Structures are given as structure tokens and as C-alpha cells.
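User: Round two. Same drill as before: sequence, then structure, for each protein.

Assistant: Same drill it is. First protein:
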Amino acid sequence: MSKLLLNLRHVGDDEYQNVCALLDRLGIAWYRTEPSPWGISNGGLWVREDADHPRAKEAMAAYQAQRGERMRAQRAQELRDGTGETFANLLRSRPLYVVGVLLVMLVVASLVLLPFFLLRG
């Protein structure tokens, strides 16, 4: 019976290709399910054989640890270079968008808290 190894929600093409190459290199049979057209499921990478699943999970954990370390180093380098996206950069480049989002967040928070204040008094 197949087991899910990786949900493809928010997985970039580079990560997907790296994981596929890793599984191929280890000789682990896998297949991909596509996301549904209505957005109900996001697709995934599945390991075909139950016996391969622990080995695939172990390799996946090592890959994710390595990738996380590499992405954190890349983010730190971008911040040092001044090319990384920060709140201040976003506010300078898209002020109307940032102010609009903050206003929407304020409205939503007010609507959520409104019953609390009405029932309190």
C-alpha cells in the first residue's frame, strides 16, 4: 500500500525536483498525484512500497534539514546585501498595498472582537 511522503502544498518546483531525484537515487519507487482542479487537495509524492517508507522519511528529514540550513543562510545573505524583502522595503515599494492590508486586518479584528464588547456591557 502506498504512503504519502510529501504534500505538495507550497512546495516549489526546485524542491519537488530535488526530492524526486533523491528518491530516484535511493531506488525508491514513487509517484505523484496532481492537485484537484477545485483546490480541495494539493497533490503529493507517494512512496509505492510500505517497506521503503521509513528509508524515504529518513532521507527526506536529512534533505529538509540541509535545505532549511541552506535557505536560512541564503536569507541572512540577502539581508546583509540589502536585497532581502523586509517590511520596511515592502512599505517603501508598495505603500498603498501595505496600508490597505493593515486596514483590512484592523477591520477583521474589530469584527471579531465586537461581540465581546457588546456582550460585556
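Second protein:
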Amino acid sequence: MTVILLAIVIGVAFGVVLDRVGASNPSYINAMLNLTNLNLAKSILLAIGVGSVLMFGGQLLGFVEVGHMSVKTAYAGVFLGGLLLGAGWAMSGFCPGTGIVAAATGRKDALFFIAGGLLGAAAYMVTYPSWKASGMLDKIAGGKVTLGTIPGAKYDGLTAISGDILGLVLGLGFIAVAFALPERFVGSPAQAQPAE
């Protein structure tokens, strides 16, 4: 029960942060994607960078147990799914997490997004045997692999580079890019639209 309560508290805190940085507002997403306001992109890059530094630094120092690391299987369908997710994100201004947060803040359009996502998930479940038979779900590059090798992990590394060092370097790179990015590349700053 404590684990469930902790998950709810962390989820609510994460949702509040998503809302505060503008990730639940489709106009901010659109402004980020058309490069007129990169503040949200900077927030995302900073969060990924700090999270990477904390996780891989914690693993390197022995504070984070490697056994908790989860690696998803690589297969061709992931790339197709990523393209579909990106297209849906660009068209709707929501991704699954931000859609839930937007619905919690009262955006009615987010409810339609959530319904569409559930319908898409149901369609995938119904057509799963066809996807499996097509080969789109066959493992590529060994399935569950990481870019670097992490001692004690049950996953192979694509390179002999220390995964913890690689994770730290990439995390610091994300942080540097977050600070180096300008506020916008083109046009004038976009104005946010109020919740519907």
C-alpha cells in the first residue's frame, strides 16, 4: 500500500511540474515544435540531463542499484510507434502524460485526446496477432541492450564503454544544451492560450 501511495504522490508532483512548465498547454507544445518558444524544450532537456546525472552518478557511487534499471526491447515496431506518437503529439499538442495533466487542469480537448489514445490502444490489442506475424515485433540489435556496458546489469552493451560514464557524459551534454539553446530560433514568442 505504501508503494501505491508513494507512486500517487510522485505522479501528482510530476503532473504539477508538467503543468507549471507549460507541458500541458498545446500552444506551448506547438510553439516548441515550430521553434518560436524553446523554453519547454529547455525544461525537458534539463530534466533528462539532471535525471541522467543523478541515476548514472548514483549507480557509479553505489547509491542506485543497477537491478532497478529497466531496458525496453528494441524492435522495428518501436520506430513506427515513435513516428506515430510524434505525429500525434504535433497534431494534438499532447503526449500521453501531458494529456492526463491537461485533463486534470480542465482542458476539454485533452479528454478527446485521452479517448483517442485508449481507442488506439484497443485497436493495437485487437490487431496484435497481425503485428506479431508481420515481423514488426521481432528483436533487433539483440533486443534488450544498452549503449554502454554496466557491470552487474543483465543487459548487454553495444559498446565496451562504461554505461555509467556514458550516461553521465550524455546527461551533462543535455544540461549544457538546455542552457545553450536560445529562447527561440524563429519568429516572435508565441503567446499561450488559456485552458478551454
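The longest strand covers residues 145-146.

User: Perfect.
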